[in-house]
# Entry
Amino acid sequence: MIFLTTLVMACGFIPMTMFGVALGGIAKTFGVSLTKMSLYTGDAFATGIFAAFIPGHSGWFDKRPKVGVTISMLLAIVPQLLFPVTSSLWLVTILRFCQGFVIMQLAVFTFQLSGWFRPAERGISLGFTVGAIAFGGFLGGMLTNALAPYGWKATMYASGLLMIAGLVIYLIFAKDAPSFMKQVMEAKAKPAAHVSIWRQPMSWIMGLVQVPMVWVLFTGGFVSLYALKVGHFSSHQVGTLNIVMGFSGLILSVVGAWLGDLACKGQTTNRGVVNARLKMIIIGNILMALAAILLITVGRSSFDALILVGILFEFMWFVSPNYWATPGVVYPTALMGAGAFAMGLISNAASPVGSFASTAILSMGWNGVFVLMAIICIIGIPICIWAMKYPLPSEDPRYTQAS
# Structure
C-alpha cells in the first residue's frame, strides 16, 4: 500500500514542476508574457489546492477511498492532455485550477493508510507518500529536460500517459484494511459520529499548524524566479536546483517521518503521540524560516550557496508526514476522515492567500516575499505549542463513544 500510494502520488504531482519548467515555451506559444502566464496559472493552481479539500469534509470518501483518488487523478490527467490542444489563456487557467484537486488524495491516503498502521508507525507510512509530492516534481523536471527537444506539448502527452498508468496500477492492486473499515462503519452508525467537524476547536488549531508549510510550498516557486531574475543564474542551473530540491524533499520527508515515529515510540496516549509529532513540526518551521532569511542574504552569492539554501527549504517535507499522521489520533475513528479534510481545507487556505500576497509584495521588492515567509514560519511555533495543550476530541468522552 505504501508503494501504491507513493506511486500514484508521484504521478499525480508530475505536473506541478513540469508546468513551471515548461512555462516559457507555453507562454511563447500562447503569445503572452511569462509573468502573466505564471501569475494566472500559478494562482489558479494554488486556489484549486485549497478547494480540493471541500468535497471530503463530510466524511463521504471514508467509505470509498478509491473513488476519491480516481476523481483527484482525473482532474489532473484530463487537463494535462488538453493543454496542448487549447489556445485560450482562460481555459488553461481553469484547467490549472482543476489540477489543484490532485492534493485531495493526500487526505484520502491519510485515512486509508491509517487502517494498515499503528499510530506510532503512521509517519513512515505517509513519509514516502508525502515525499512523493516532491519526487513528482523531480520526475517532472527530469521528464521535461529529457523531452525538451520535442517541445512542451510532447512532455504534456507523455506525462499524461504516465499519470494514467499510475492510477490504473493503484486501482488494480490497492486494498482497504477490512477490520479498520468495519470499525469505521460501526462508529459512523452511532449518534456521536454525526457531530459537525467544524465545531471541534482542534480542527481549526491543527489547520493553522500546517499553514507555514503550505505557505512555503505554494510560494516556493518564487525561489526559482528569484534565482533567475535576482541571482542571475541560468535556466539550466535553475532546472538543476529544482531537481535537487525535489529529490531532497523525498529524502527529508522519509527522514522526518522516521524521526517522528521514533519520537512516538513509548507514548501510551493520543496526547503523547500528537505532541511528539508537533515537536518535529516546530523543528521544520525553524529551518524553513532560516532558509528564507539565508536566501536573501547569501543565496545569490554562488550556485553552491543557492543549492544549500534550496535543500534547507525542503525541510517543509519534514513537517508534512508528521502533520498528516495526526488525524488518526486527534479524532475518534468516526470523525477521522472528515477531520483530515477539515485540517487540509483550513491549512491550504494559505495556498491562494500566499500566492496572491507574495505576488503583491513582489512589486515592492523581493526581500519582502521571503521576510514574510520567515515571519509566518516563526508564528507557527506558538501555534504548535497551543495545539500541544488543547484537549483532543479523541480523548473527549462526548465523542469517543463514536469509536
